[in-house]
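Record passed on underneath.
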Amino acid sequence: MNSYVKYQIISYVLLRNIEVLEDWSAPKLCLGGEEMKSPKKSVRRKCLGAVLIIAMIFMVTFLVLGIGIATIVDANVQIAYNQHQLGRALASAESGLEVMRYWLTRVRIPNSTAQSDYCATIIDSVRNDLAVNSISNIAVGINGSIPAVNLDTQDGQYFTGQIAIRAGEPNVLEVYATGGNERIRRTIKVSYDIGPDQHPIFDFGIATKGPLYVQGSTDVHGLNQNSEADVYIESKNTIDALSMKGRSAIAGDIQIANPDAVVSVGNSSSIGGENGQDAINNHVVIGAPPFDFPELDIVGFEDYVIDDFDPDVDTSSNMTLENIRIPANTNPHFSGNVILRGIVFIESPNIVQFTGNAEITGIVIGEGDLDFPSDENRLIFRGNVNSQSVSGLSAACGDLRLETGTCVLAPGFSVSFGGSFLTLNGVIAASAVEFFGNARGIINGAVMNYGEDPMTLDGSVNLVFDRSGTQEIPAGFEFEIVLQYDPKSYSEI
């Protein structure tokens, strides 16, 4: 109801009241047509003018109040309408933000992509994903702009968007979503960090695709906390996923992906500090979510090789091997003390044994086939071993010093440790892994068995996992670059 109509109604009511008052105060006629006599005639005539004045005052007062109230009501209605439109505009922007978030979280960027190509790669990925899924109402321009997407055609609600790399920060993607109609618009800005995909498999001390068999007086625990010794077992093709015999102990918890897995823990063995069935009930999860094992990439390491190993050299003497290739079928047995520096690249097939002490400042690479491991590919450490990061190499080694986080990377090879070690600095990954005899020491990283055969810990094995300073993606592991939403970046502009 507008102000004019309200004014007309109020005026009509007031005028009717005046008519009643006038009628009440008018002289009363008798049946003969003459005015009735009143004993207080003079007083009534004197009051007649006062009543009219009072009525006029009331009329003006009510009229002013009516107009004021009508004005306030109209203002409040307009304010409420504006707030409603602002809320709808913001809701449209939020909808656009969620739509873009859905498609951006599906983006995968190859790790070989240069930072300068991140934006173009992200845009191409989203455009292709929309086309593959037959999404026709959303379009992304080659400059990252998103034209209007209708949300409510009746009220004209829509959103637009824009994605772009933040100036001066090539690892940050900024996303703008604007929602509204022809009258009101609201814009929200958020950002995404561009970085390597986080592999949960690196959160475990031991990760094996095959079963895990532990016996003897084996002890597996964490240096700083028990969770550093957590174990993941896939055991997809083997029901007997975990067997623990003797006085063996694993301080962490165990997750087994196979929902039909069978677990055997002897009364003298323990998991998480509890024995027997209590250990299984409280510290073993059967049917846990499966985790992917990242692909291994050893090709680039061969570029660091400088020399080939001479098979005629006396391997019983002490020696230093630096950035060297061990040719196929060499099968060396190093019984003396050996210093390994940089990259030791072992071709397939080869059986390489170290029965003396081995000092490693670098990475040992096995060039085998991950899908077809061979019994003729073995890497055996029977003596004492100590390893350090490649970052400790001299400046002359150049980019090799950046290939950190890995100690042994040997697809298609079995790797065995039977002696003590002060530290194994980095991840150990192979098609089969075994610790036996008196193998004991600190492992700064994870042990990963990529093969379907059991991983075994047998003897007086004592493994201490220290994962406090490990990096997310060690050298030699393929990874994809993803967009990670930063919720703290949300702002309305």
